[in-house]
Design a protein that fits this description.
Elements: E1 2-5, H1 13-16, E2 22-31, E3 36-44, E4 48-53, E5 69-72, H2 73-78, H3 98-116
Parallel strand pairs: 1-2
Antiparallel strand pairs: 2-3, 3-4, 4-5
């Protein structure tokens, strides 16, 4: 399993997930003083995509609650331009997670491109 930590801090995903059920995982995570925030996306061979909301306070770690959503690959690709919680709504540049999703898709394109060529 390849883990791409693209955020400013490591979320230590490889320590969290010992099962290696993912082909690859993309993580954008930032640790605060007493909290953290970010998104992790795990891609499985069966075409499903697990999305983790890594926002947490000091009481919990980023992976305490498991995946927040399980998407098909098609539903994941829809998130490139649309809100993950409202699939018919276009994501706006001032949405709080816009930059995070852009970074995730840049890395996704790099990984998929390297797998295809």
């Amino acid at each position: 399993m390849a883990v791409y930590e693209i955020g400013p801090d490591s979320s230590e995903f490889a320590d969290y997930d010992k099962s290696s059920e993912y082909e690859f995982v993309i993580v954008d995570y930032a640790q605060g003083s007493y909290d953290g925030r970010g998104i992790a996306v795990g891609f499985k061979a069966d075409g499903t995509v697990d999305v983790y909301n890594l926002d947490h306070c000091s009481c919990y770690g980023p992976y305490e609650h498991g995946p927040e959503k399980v998407l098909t690959r098609e539903e994941f690709l829809n998130v490139r331009e649309n809100d993950i919680d409202m699939p018919d709504r276009k994501r706006l540049e001032d949405d709080i997670d816009c930059d995070t999703w852009e970074a995730i898709f840049i890395q996704y394109d790099k990984v998929i491109g390297s797998d295809n060529g």
